[in-house]
Design goal:
Structural class: alpha/beta
Strand content: 15-25%
Distance between the termini: 28 Å
Shape: flat
Order of helices and strands: EHEHEEHEHHHEHHEHHHEEHHEHHEE
Mean pLDDT: 86
Low-confidence stretches: 23-35, 81-85
Number of helices: 15
């Protein structure tokens, strides 16, 4: 899972990235402090994986990874190259989903790129630039398709109609992910990697004081309503607070969280929201005493494709899989007990993997 962190300069993107990855990258108070994208991989905390590793004591206990990409701050005019915008926008094409950091905190020592705090307006600036970039992508495709119209083939006429439909809706401010696309239109959208086609998670970056009562903020209610209308995710977080939190011992951390009446760190909330945004589940594999691995896959994945996530040879030579869900494995005290209880199943290549499945793949070398 690769998530791109975007937002206006000085919105707190790099501070959030530091908190997520403990990378210690520069997060200074000036625009474009981040030029090249910073990349960090975070292991997902997983009590089920911990339990499996305690049982099998493998050489390697491999958690599900999430890759975070801190993309430089976008500004108005980015789609036309302002603030190195074209370069920054190209980085967004490579991620699976967008974490859009929206500044809510007030701090006279941290300049706002537009001189005044207005979260909803800030969101609109980023959206506008992503839409403009997609329109530019469409324009280039339209030029190619127009040349191919001379062949007289119907498929190019149909493609021009699809391009016009997508373009008209983008011009109206409708991102590709909210457009009704199927069949050939959907395939064209997938081929062109539209920026506005990616799932979005809004992260309201607040002060500790705001975090104590986020729903009392009018602008946050507006952001929540916007997210609901777009089928996007939204969470509130204080990037500065999270950065301080990771340096504390467990007892101190709990005291800090209790002080703000929080049940869990915001970073854990963010990772869970990322899973939900991409409709991901986790399955597990146990390779003798060598490795226990947690692997994220999209919900609805066939088991033969899940095998390919471990190694391509497993998918190519797939024969069958032995499957037991973690809940049964845990309830009946391990594989032997689950087998005696009839909870271990043999599944073929079309089986749809469920969250928590422990899979042992049989395949031809």
């Amino acid at each position: 899972m690769e998530l791109g962190i975007v937002g206006l300069p000085n919105s707190g993107k790099s501070t959030l990235f530091n908190a997520l990855t403990e990378a210690g990258i520069s997060a200074d108070n000036y625009p474009f402090c981040t030029i090249e994208p910073n990349v960090g991989v975070v292991e997902v905390e997983d009590p089920r994986l911990e339990k499996l590793c305690q049982e099998y004591n493998p050489e390697d206990c491999t958690a599900a990874p999430i890759k975070f990409v801190d993309i430089a701050g976008l500004v108005e005019g980015a789609s036309r190259g302002e603030g190195l915008g074209n370069k920054f926008l190209s980085h967004i094409r490579e991620v699976e989903a967008i974490i859009h950091v929206v500044r809510f905190f007030e701090d006279k020592n941290v300049a706002h790129v537009n001189g005044k705090l207005n979260p909803i307006q800030d969101v609109g600036i980023i959206e506008k630039e992503l839409i403009e970039a997609d329109l530019e992508t469409l324009s280039r495709r339209e030029e190619k398709t127009e040349k191919m119209l001379k062949t007289g083939e119907d498929k190019y006429k149909e493609e021009m109609e699809i391009i016009k439909k997508i373009s008209d809706e983008l011009e109206a401010g409708i991102p590709v992910r909210l457009q009704s696309l199927d069949g050939k239109a959907r395939r064209l959208a997938d081929e062109l990697f539209f920026l506005t086609d990616k799932p979005v998670l809004y992260v309201a970056n607040m002060s500790e004081e705001q975090l104590a009562n986020p729903n009392g903020l009018e602008q946050y209610q507006k952001l929540k309503n916007k997210a609901k209308n777009e089928a996007a995710g939204v969470i509130e977080i204080s990037a500065v607070f999270e950065l301080e939190l990771i340096e504390l011992e467990a007892e101190e951390k709990e005291l800090f969280l209790n002080g703000l009446e929080l049940t869990e760190p915001g970073l854990k909330k963010l990772i869970n929201a990322g899973y939900e945004l991409l409709d991901l589940i986790t399955f597990y594999t146990v390779a003798g005493g060598r490795e226990v691995r947690a692997t994220p896959i999209p919900e609805g994945t066939e088991i033969i494709k899940a095998a390919g996530k471990i190694h391509s040879s497993m998918e190519e030579g797939f024969i069958r899989a032995e499957v037991v869900n973690f809940e049964d494995w845990n309830k009946y005290d391990g594989m032997a007990g689950a087998r005696d209880a009839g909870k271990v199943r043999i599944e073929g290549k079309n089986y749809i993997v469920e969250d928590g499945d422990i899979c042992h793949f049989r395949f031809k070398d």
